[in-house]
Amino acid sequence: MLTLFSDETIVAQPTKYVTLTTHRIWNERRGYSKTTHQSIMLEHITSCESIRAFYVLLLLLAIICAAAAVSVSSTNAGEYTLHFAVPSGLFFLLFLLIRKAKLIISSPSMKMKISLTGVKKDKVHEFVNTIEQTKHKRLESLKHPGTMGYL
After folding, report:
1. CATH architecture of residue range(s) 10-50+101-143
2. Which candidate in 30, 62, 78, 149 could, as Cys together with 91 as Cys, close a disulfide (CB 3.0–4.6 Å)?
3. pLDDT per residue over 113-140, tens digit each?
4. Any alpha helices (H) in the chain, and if so which ranges?
């Protein structure tokens, strides 16, 4: 659990496992056999990388099987329609299930990999912008102590 510093406030929480504060970004990764907590101070962030991966081949196979099912159903061999319709549905379902979205935040000593599968692309970009704006304000406050320009 994240414990805030006395002068620290939460800026954003795009998921229940990721917290951006005025001082750092904090991530908790839970697995079957271990839980990992990572924290990077904002002034140490060197880059943010957004990755979206999906398997076009599965979508292509779903379309081909669907076209074959339509073609077979319009011929005399209509009893074979399910032989193509079921795999088409399965390929499409797999396409939807194994899509991945990640945000990688780098510092000189670590890479924080945040799973954002299910988060819309616009929200990911908005979160990256919030990280960059918060980092800028943090750096400005370190240059000029006593000025707090946080969100």
Report:
1. Roll (2.30)
2. 62
3. 998 877 888 888 999 999 999 999 999 8
4. 56-73, 81-97, 121-143
